[in-house]
Write a structure and sequence with these properties.
The protein has 1929 residues and is of the alpha/beta class. The chain is 34% helix and 21% strand. The protein has 8 domains: 4-125 and 185-476, Peroxisomal Thiolase, Chain A, domain 1 (3-Layer(aba) Sandwich), CATH 3.40.47.10; 483-571, 2-Layer Sandwich (Alpha-Beta Plaits), CATH 3.30.70; 578-681 and 774-878, 3-Layer(aba) Sandwich (Malonyl-Coenzyme A Acyl Carrier Protein, domain 2); 936-1016, Orthogonal Bundle (Non-ribosomal Peptide Synthetase Peptidyl Carrier Protein, Chain A); 1023-1030 and 1443-1473 and 1493-1564, Thiol Ester Dehydrase, Chain A (Roll); 1037-1179; 1190-1377 and 1403-1426, NAD(P)-binding Rossmann-like Domain (Rossmann fold, 3-Layer(aba) Sandwich); 1732-1926, no CATH class.
């Protein structure tokens, strides 16, 4: 066959204007994806994250052509023709012309025009034709809009005028229909237009094979050339179809990527769309050579096939292999000779697996020994260009064979399992490679299309081999998966502006343009001090990271080092100083060299020099040590290239060798030799032993060690200690640690390194060291042997020999090395040391991780170094990179859809739908007619009928949803939730006992509840519910924060000055404000030592401000105490103001500070400045629930003076202190006990409690009365040594109603009262002062300006007393409102505040907190005690950044360390696992995800990272998500004790009124306890039950993501022993959501629940609660398989309780569940068909229900057709297995013949065989069993067979309605049981009343025979199983 030559090529694809650009993009890994531009398809209209949402798509990323413009004038195309024709025509024409020019036929000159043909691949022309057709649909729009407006009452004139205008607007984007429109909209005329333009006569037409179209065009053209029809052919494809029809259509097939697009990858999840055009020129090879045309490649063969009956939208292996076979038969060589496959590669899970499998099978069938060929797909770069995709792949492959280079597989991150299998025949390259020597230069290209079409084309290149061009080698090494974006500025404000500009620009760029942008930004750096850097992987990621830095700057931060090492912010005030950390054994995982080796030739040299193994055990010491030092040397090379040098280094153990090489003491060669020798010595000469990591200080570890032969081997951190010793000693040490509550982990090491057990290795290594030459230590190293700096002349052989047995002093070394350093860099594989260093020093540590397959590690180091001031040679990061110019702010141009020229309108109104007119109700389920309210019974009937899909008349009032309608309890609960909402019944009151209720009974219950709710005026709570009520103590810290960026510039304005006391700042500040462009306002400047009289002017100023216009500023400046409380109240009463409170020293510099603070205030700000100008903001931070240490300030000899009377809060608190300390109480009050019964009763109660108490009368506002009363009290009780000041007065009033007298009345008891008391006692003797203030002083409150100010002063006064008297514990307790007692109750404001979200403190909570604070010696001087304070924004809470977790998406209520309530919207599109948790048409939120959600929110609330112990988990009612909609849940977590969190989940479906799930989470750190339930003993084969095919889909409803059961070792009624898969990750959530999990693999954990289904196989088991879970957390993640054992603890009706232990491969329990409570729903009746092994559990449970006998039953299947099935030995062997399964241990077959046998210590065992089943029953007392197949017999035969029992068979048949054959088989089986048990054949048998469904219980004397008729899967006939036992009927 003549070969076909490719002589010309042209293309236009995203980011590629030519084949050369396309090829270089492939080498360099440029990906053209970007956010779909709105001019093409507006995302607001068409994008929705939910895949199920109608008429939308869920992937907003695409590859689109940018910057293309057709040269209409150059091609001489008329304007009207151009506009009326789809753009695909012009793009194809343009590319055809360029391809002809490339082939040597410019403008078709020289072409044999009569014999030149054109074949174009295309589908549906293009999107612009489809859009333009909308013009012709105007009549539809006119009629629809006209009809709607007529219904609104529009008259004809108004309507006609409106429609005329609308028509003009509607049609304006679309070209008029003219003579060119029809031809311009046809697909075939694309080819015809090319023929027309270039005057070609060989024929032109279009082929449509969907996504195979363009490759089909090539094969069609080739055939025309072979057949001699043409001499030259143009072939190719064009596709411009990124419009709703195609993209929404692909979305509904699930083909679009739900996350990042990946190809041939374990996480392949779909494609992103692309577009473009490619054209090639083809000639017969001999003609091309004769014409001296350049030949890119020759087409050697092709194959086409269809999948036949395969899928219409998915490929089939068989169909694809047929196309391959045909292609290589035509080519004349085998597929095994091909080195490159350019695949179809759509990135769908099914498509990738099918394609890779077919290719692999075809190669293996051709040659089982063939090596691995490269596989790649251009779709990873330009997306799926559909009809133009195949030609793009062919052009890329042609360039590959032309250049003789194998390109990388762009988009493949974690290669597919087919590629990583040991027998794999394909590989995905991470970097381009030269074509293998000696291999033919051949490539195969594939395209597949809807309809089942497969096309494969084979290319070949003959002739001499080419050298790989240097540019190609350079580009191949430039591939990066991440970019570093840099910025600098002269000030924080300038930097913020630059970052905001970038954040606004990056969403418009493509992935490839991120590299261009990075290069641009690097070139624009100006060496300015304020710096930022972000490491990004996509435009969306860049936007997120840049926004993070902008937010940080806005919050006043000037230094950011993000936890993920992706965003950096810093101020480089000098050259940054770097320290290196070199890792030791235990770091890293491979020898590939990762991304650094591929990126830098200098790094690759290191790995080539090292000659490391490519396979085997990478952890083995002899391999690990050379591997790790190689990584460190490679890292040094990479860092040296970018100019990052260090001043000091620390090497962890082995890493000290790397440090010595860095310091010049060793050459690279010597380092490799020493590492190899060290590893060899340790392997060969070390005694056995092991090591453990301990979460404790060295002192604690030493105490635990005691006399054990265990030593500390490493000081890795303050609480990270490593021990080493013999295995048994380490185990004993671990037991001691566990008992002491210390967490420890045995390390996976081969020896006890750094201990005496490796002394022989040290000696052997020493001999090697003696022969090595060492140079001086030329750089500073802090040794981990000595913890000190090494001297230049250190005896290195001695040091390194000692190092092997000496402990690693990493902590000590890092402490020394980190001094004066700005950054630490871990140089080598892994990230261990950077993590450890973080616990030792505050200096940031970044890991380079030379093993990483991502370049991000190097970029992180470069970014961190840059912002720190290290002189980094960033230009090296771009050496050899393929970057194109890109200016920030560049405007991009794309193809524009005319449809998107419509006006952009945002409509936020509420849709009000008119009620439908009443219509005759159909006789099916439907709502009540208008005007007649639907009764509760009708509502329930309708909802039940809809869910059961039954006509309404079939559902009556007495129908029982569970028993008669066969709805599950989940569905019935959902129906009731719907009904309660419609009827206005609180969800918390909804009936939940559904077991036997009829619809009528449910209706009556709902009616009663609705009446109660109506009477109570029930309303849905407005406050967001938490998991538990709380009140907590908060410290008021002064956090150093940068000033936020100035708000938008304003004009200068007028300012009014109020300056009582004549502060020197007043006038300068007044002038500065008027000229500071901060608008207008009022400023109050208070003097130092502010007195009460100075507040009058502040009050006057506030009154003026309250009436000012919106935006007016109110500023208070004070130097100590002042009017802050007044200003905060003003802000709450007059929120239209902008309020600033500034506390500054009285210095001239304060003016600028105040003006800057004012300029930055958007609504409210309060800041404190010190003499140095440091800005601090008061921040409330939760104190621990319990005091870390307790030290009572008072004792029995102390006297506590109490003001405020002997009643209320003060009295309760005073009594508590007295009881805790033994102090006497001196109570001061105005009332006379004789006339105040409450006071008298309280005083008696105090005395009765054993407290010495004395009462004296005085008004605290009168100094003389106080002195006299104190004298009286001291004479009675002794000197006063403590004061509890609770006196106060509160008369609320708005600011405008207050005056100086109101302030005086309020100040008198609070301020004067405390001063009077302090004056009356000896202040120097005080040991405790507690003043009762109010949070109002901290935050302000409506109507409380005077009270707020007084409390603010009280806190200041209390603090002063403490400062004057160091021996006095002075605490101002600022209380929120109390419930039941106190001023809040007296003023009747508690309920109102609660409705606003301010939670009151109960007396019990308050007293408990007060006691805790008094006893805490470290208590701060001012403490706020409160519950929630929602709506008060005048206080700042400590709110660290929330972790990126799925269920922490939207915080509603947040108090860090106390409470977090979040909301998450869930749908099948966001939470992908829901589709795999579908029960009875309901998407159920799985319990395992409920626990994960609670754990995530608890972790975010507390900052805890470890997995908690989960206790008292309850799944009270299901959370249901509609399949086509979404449901919101709220997850609440409340800290109820230190380390303990209460959590709950509520759902929108019940109005968030009730808990659906709840649990308690404890952060104990304790591992899972070992012990029972134990694994089944060895000796029994695995249960013949395949969960994948025999349980999932039938017994189990869970879908694919939850398919984790692998095999059962025991599957009994009360015992489970099974293997489950634990996987490292899964696509649980949509790609745009965070995917991290705290409890690790939920699929495995769900299997622990549904795996118990084998115990109750006739029902569906749903979890309702768990007593306790010790979770493995992430430690079990990705471990492969785990073994779980479950034992039933108890059963109560349909509720089952299980205990579970999960073990790793070593038999260690890694997770334990105690008290898993499962509820049976959807029970079946046992008729089958059954999988045989599940029958045993069902028989056992039903037997107990029917007879009361607990027997053990097992059923074992066998093949009755097997030749030896009936042999005695085979029967005995089967009987032994069945008996072993019944009793849970192996049973001796020799002692178990057929029939009835005694099993020692167990009971009587009966065995029967038949119908392919072996049935074994083990029970106490008389036992028997039988199996009988139901076979057809005549009446006469039955009479003979049954003898005296024939009548019984007739009776059974009449009673049950079953046929005579079935009844006869029952009686036969019963008779066989009796015979086996020794009863005579003639013994009478009678039928009892017991039995149900397919069961009949027969009686014979004192025994019962229970018979079941059922069916087996894959067996045609029914079978009877009969079991004889003693017991009741």
């Amino acid at each position: 066959m003549s070969r076909i030559a490719i002589v010309g090529m042209a293309c236009r694809y995203p980011d590629a204007a030519s084949p050369r650009e396309l090829w270089e993009n492939a080498l360099a890994g440029r990906r053209a994806f970007r956010r779909l531009p709105d001019v093409r398809m507006r995302l607001d209209d068409y994008w929705n994250a939910d895949p199920a949402h109608p008429d939308t798509f869920y992937a907003r990323t695409a590859a689109v052509i940018e910057g293309y413009e057709f040269d209409r004038l150059g091609y001489r195309i008329a304007g009207s023709t151009y506009r009326s024709t789809d753009l695909t025509h012009w793009l194809a024409l343009d590319m055809a012309g360029l391809a002809l020019a490339d082939a040597g036929f410019p403008k078709a000159e020289g072409l044999p025009r009569e014999r030149t043909g054109v074949v174009v691949g295309n589908t549906l022309t293009g999107e612009f034709t489809r859009a333009n057709v909308m013009r012709l649909r105007w009549p539809y729009v006119r009629r629809t809009v006209g009809a709607a407006l007529k219904e609104q009452g529009w008259d004809d004139d108004r309507l006609a005028t409106f429609l005329a205008g609308l028509e003009e607007t509607y049609k304006s984007p679309f070209p008029s229909i003219d003579e060119d429109t029809l031809a311009g909209g046809l697909s075939n005329t694309i080819a015809g237009r090319i023929c027309n333009h270039f005057d070609l006569n060989g024929g032109g037409y279009t082929v449509d094979g969907a996504c195979s179209s363009s490759l089909l065009s090539v094969t069609t053209a080739c055939k025309a050339l072979i057949d001699g029809d043409v001499d030259v052919a143009l072939a190719g494809g064009v596709d411009l179809s990124i419009d709703p029809f195609e993209i929404v259509g692909f979305a509904k097939t699930g083909a679009l990527a739900k996350g990042e697009m990946r190809l041939y990858d374990r996480r392949s999840n779909g494609f992103w769309p692309g577009e473009g055009c490619g054209m090639i020129v083809l000639m017969r090879e001999e003609d091309a050579v004769a014409g001296r045309h350049r030949v890119y490649a020759t087409i050697a063969g092709w194959g086409i096939s269809s999948d036949g009956k395969g899928g219409i939208t998915r490929p089939e292996v068989s169909g694809y292999k047929l196309a391959l076979r045909r292609a290589y038969e035509r080519a004349g060589f085998g597929i095994e000779t091909v080195e490159l496959f350019e695949g179809h590669g759509t990135g769908t899970a099914v498509g990738d697996a099918t394609e890779l499998t077919a290719l692999s099978q075809a190669r293996a069938e051709a040659d089982p020994t063939v090596g691995r060929a490269a596989v790649t797909s251009i779709k990873g770069m330009i997306g799926h260009a559909k009809a133009a995709a195949g030609i793009a792949g062919l052009i890329k492959a042609a360039m590959a064979v032309h250049e003789q280079v194998l390109p990388p597989a762009i988009g493949c991150v974690e290669p597919h399992d087919v590629l990583t299998d040991e027998s794999a025949k394909l590989r995905a390259l991470r970097k381009a490679e030269p074509w293998p020597d000696g291999a033919p230069v051949r490539a195969g290209i594939t395209a597949m299309g809807f309809g089942g079409i497969n096309t494969h084309v084979v290319l070949e290149k003959t002739g001499p081999r080419r050298r790989v061009p240097s540019r190609t080698r350079m580009l191949a090494g430039a591939l990066q998966d991440a970019e570093l974006l840099l910025a600098d500025a002269g000030s924080p404000e300038e930097l913020r502006g630059r970052l905001a500009e970038l954040a606004g620009f990056v969403p418009a760029v493509s992935y490839a343009q991120l590299a261009d942008l990075a290069a641009t930004l690097r070139g624009e750096l100006r060496d300015l001090p304020w710096r930022a850097a972000v490491v990004v992987t996509s435009p969306e990621d860049a936007e997120k990271q840049l926004a993070k830095l902008v937010e940080a700057l806005d919050a006043g931060s000037t230094r950011v080092l993000a936890a993920d090492g992706r965003a950096f912010l810093g101020h480089a005030d000098g050259p940054g100083r770097v320290g290196f950390l070199f890792p030791g054994q235990g770091s890293g995982r491979g020898t590939s060299g990762g991304a650094l080796r591929r990126r830098f030739a200098e790094v690759e040299e290191i790995y080539l020099q090292a000659g490391l193994p490519t396979g085997g055990d990478m952890v083995a010491t002899a391999v690990a040590q050379p591997r790790i030092v190689t990584g460190s040397m490679a890292g040094l090379r990479a860092l040296s290239l970018i100019g990052v040098e260090a001043e000091v280094a620390v090497g962890h153990s082995l890493g000290e060798l790397s440090a010595l090489q860095w310091a010049g003491a060793l050459t690279e060669e010597a380092l490799l030799r020493l590492a190899a020798a060290r590893g060899e010595a340790m392997t060969r000469h070390s005694a056995s032993g092991t090591m453990a990591g301990v979460r404790a200080t060295p002192d604690t570890v030493t105490e635990l060690t005691g006399d054990l032969p265990v030593v500390i081997a490493g000081y890795n951190g303050p609480e990270q200690t490593v021990v080493a010793g013999p295995v048994d000693a380490i185990e004993e040490f671990g037991a001691r640690a566990t008992a002491a509550g210390v967490k420890w982990t045995r390390l996976a090491v081969s020896h006890a390194f750094h201990s005496p057990l490796v002394a022989p290795a040290a000696e052997a290594f020493g001999e090697h060291l003696a022969g090595e030459e060492f140079g001086p230590v030329g750089r500073q190293i802090v040794s981990t042997v000595t913890g000190e700096v090494l001297q230049p002349d250190t005896d290195l052989p001695a040091l390194l020999g000692r190092q092997i047995t000496a402990p690693v002093q990493f902590t000590q070394a890092v402490e020394v090395a980190a001094k004066d350093m700005d950054l630490l860099v871990e140089v080598g594989p892994g990230r261990v040391l950077s993590t450890l260093a973080a616990s030792v020093t505050d200096v940031p540590a970044i890991a380079l991780d030379t093993d990483d397959e991502s370049i991000a590690g190097l970029l992180r180091v470069a970014g961190a170094a840059y912002v720190t001031g290290v002189p980094v040679a960033h230009e090296e990061l771009f050496h050899g990179r393929l970057v194109r110019p890109l200016a920030v702010g560049t405007e991009f141009s794309f193809f524009q859809s005319p449809v998107e020229q419509a006006p952009t309108v945002t409509i936020e109104g509420v849709v009000v739908r008119p009620e439908a007119p009443a219509a005759e109700a159909p006789a099916t389920a439907g709502p009540a007619t208008a005007g007649a309210p639907e009764s509760s019974i009708d509502l329930l009937r309708r909802l039940a009928a809809e869910r059961a899909e039954l006509p309404l008349e079939m559902v009556g009032a007495d129908s029982r949803p569970l028993d008669e309608l066969h709805l599950s309890s989940v569905t019935v609960m959902h129906i009731i939730d719907q009904a309660t909402q419609k009827l206005g019944v609180p969800a918390s009151h909804a009936p939940t006992n559904l077991a036997t209720a009829s619809l009528r009974e449910l209706s009556e219950a709902l009616d009663a509840l609705a009446a109660d709710a109506s009477a109570a005026g029930n309303a849905a709570p407005a406050v967001v519910a938490g998991a538990a009520p709380w009140a907590r103590a908060f410290a008021v810290d002064a956090d150093v924060l940068r000033l936020p960026a100035r708000t938008s510039p304003q004009e200068n304005g007028r300012w009014r000055l109020y300056a009582p006391g004549g502060s020197p700042l007043a006038e300068p500040l007044h002038q500065a404000l008027e000229s500071g462009k901060v608008g207008s306002g009022i400023v109050v400047v208070l003097p130092a030592g502010c007195a009460e009289e100075h507040l009058a002017q502040a009050l006057e100023a506030a009154k003026v401000a309250a009436g000012a216009e919106a935006g007016t500023r109110f500023v208070v400046v004070q130097h100590d105490r002042g009017a802050a409380g007044l200003a905060k109240t003003l802000q709450l009463e007059a929120p239209h103001l902008r309020t600033t409170i500034v506390h500054v020293p009285a210095t001239p510099a304060a003016v600028d500070l105040v003006v800057a603070e004012v300029a930055a205030t958007t609504r409210f700000a309060e800041a404190f400045y010190d003499e140095a100008g440091t800005r601090r903001v008061p921040t409330m931070r939760a104190l621990p629930v319990g005091a870390p240490r307790i030290e009572q300030p008072l004792g029995s000899g102390d006297v506590l003076l109490v003001t405020g009377g002997g009643k209320g809060i003060t009295a309760e608190c005073a009594l508590a202190v007295a009881q805790d300390t033994g102090a006497a109480l001196a109570v001061l009050g105005r009332s006379d006990p004789a006339g105040d019964p409450e006071l008298a009763a309280n005083l008696r109660r105090m005395a009765d409690a054993g407290v010495t108490v004395h009462y004296a009368r005085a008004d605290v506002t009168v100094a003389g009365q106080v002195r006299a009363a104190v004298a009286e009290l001291e004479s009675a009780l002794g000197p006063v040594t403590a004061v509890l000041h609770g006196a106060g007065r509160n008369e609320p009033g708005g600011i405008t109603t207050l005056d100086a007298a109101a302030f005086r009345r309020t100040f008198a008891p609070k301020i004067d009262g405390l001063r009077n008391v302090l004056a009356a006692v000896d202040e120097s003797r005080l040991r405790l002062l507690v003043s009762f203030g109010s949070i109002i002083g901290r935050a302000g409150l409506h109507g409380e300006a005077h009270y707020a100010t007084a409390n603010d002063w009280l806190a200041d006064l209390t603090r002063e007393v403490g400062e004057r008297n160091p021996g006095c514990r002075a605490i101002c307790m600022e209380w929120s409102v109390w419930s039941d007692v106190g001023m809040g109750e007296r003023l009747s404001v508690v309920d109102g505040l609660a409705r606003k979200g301010i939670s009151p403190i109960s007396p019990e909570q308050g007293v408990r907190i007060m006691r805790r604070l008094v006893a805490d010696p470290d208590v701060p001087p001012v403490v706020v005690i409160s519950g929630r304070t929602e709506g008060i924004d005048t206080v700042r809470y400590d709110l660290p950044e929330l972790p990126l977790l799925r269920f922490v998406d939207k915080p509603l209520v947040r108090y860090h360390g106390v409470e977090l309530v979040t909301e998450a919207e869930m749908s099948a599109g966001t939470d992908l696992y829901l589709a795999d948790h579908l029960l009875d048409g309901n998407l159920l939120f799985p319990a395992v995800f409920g626990m994960e959600a609670m754990a995530q929110v608890a972790a975010a609330a507390t900052g805890h990272q470890a997995a908690p112990v989960i206790e008292d988990a309850e799944f009270l009612r299901p959370i249901i998500i509609p399949p086509e909609g979404s449901t919101a849940i709220r997850i609440a977590a409340t800290v109820v004790d230190d380390g303990t969190v209460a959590a709950a989940i509520r759902s929108a479906e019940t109005g968030y009124e009730v808990d659906h799930f709840r649990a308690t989470l404890r952060y104990t750190g304790e591992p899972a306890p070992q012990g029972a339930p134990d694994q089944a003993g060895d000796g029994l084969p695995a249960v013949p039950l395949d969960p994948r095919t025999e349980m999932y889909g039938d017994v189990l409803f869970q879908g694919g993501r939850f398919h984790r059961l692998r095999r059962y070792h025991r599957a009994a009624a009360r015992h489970v022993d099974a293997d489950v898969a634990a996987e490292a990750s899964g696509d649980w959530f949509a790609g745009f959501l965070p995917g991290g999990l705290l409890l690790a693999d939920p699929g495995m954990r769900d299997a622990l629940m549904h795996g118990n289904q084998v115990c109750v196989p006739d029902a569906t088991l749903l979890p309702t609660g768990i007593e306790r879970i010790h979770s493995a957390g992430t430690t079990a993640e990705g471990t492969g398989e785990l073994r779980y054992c479950a034992t039933e603890r108890s059963r109560d009706g349909d509720t089952y309780l299980y205990d579970i232990a999960v073990r790793d491969a070593g038999g260690q329990v890694v997770e334990r569940w105690s008290g898993l409570r499962l509820q049976a729903v959807r029970k079946k009746d046992g008729r089958g068909p059954w999988v045989a092994p599940l029958l045993g559990s069902y028989l056992e449970r039903t037997l107990e229900d029917l007879t009361g006998v607990r027997a053990a039953v097992a059923v074992e299947p066998y093949d009755p057709a097997a030749g030896d099935a009936g042999a005695p030995d085979a029967r005995r062997a089967r009987a032994a297995v069945a008996a072993g399964r019944a009793v849970g241990r192996p049973v001796d077959a020799a002692g178990l013949p057929d029939g009835v046998n005694e099993l020692a210590g167990t009971g009587t065992a009966a065995v029967a065989h038949g119908a392919g089943l072996t049935l074994c029953v083990v029970a106490p007392g008389t036992t028997g069993c039988a199996v009988a197949a139901v076979t057809a017999r005549t009446e006469e035969q039955w009479g003979q067979e049954l003898g005296p029992h024939a009548a019984l068979a007739g009776e059974i048949s009449a009673r049950t309605g079953e046929g005579p054959d079935t009844a006869g088989a029952r009686v036969l089986a019963a008779a066989a049981c009796l015979a086996g048990a020794g009863s005579p054949d003639t013994a009478p048998i009678t039928a009892t009343e017991a039995g149900r469904g397919p069961w009949v219980v027969l009686a014979a004397g004192g025994v019962r025979v229970s018979t079941l008729v059922t069916t087996l899967r894959d067996a045609p006939e029914p079978v009877v199983l009969a079991i004889l036992t003693e017991g009741r009927s």
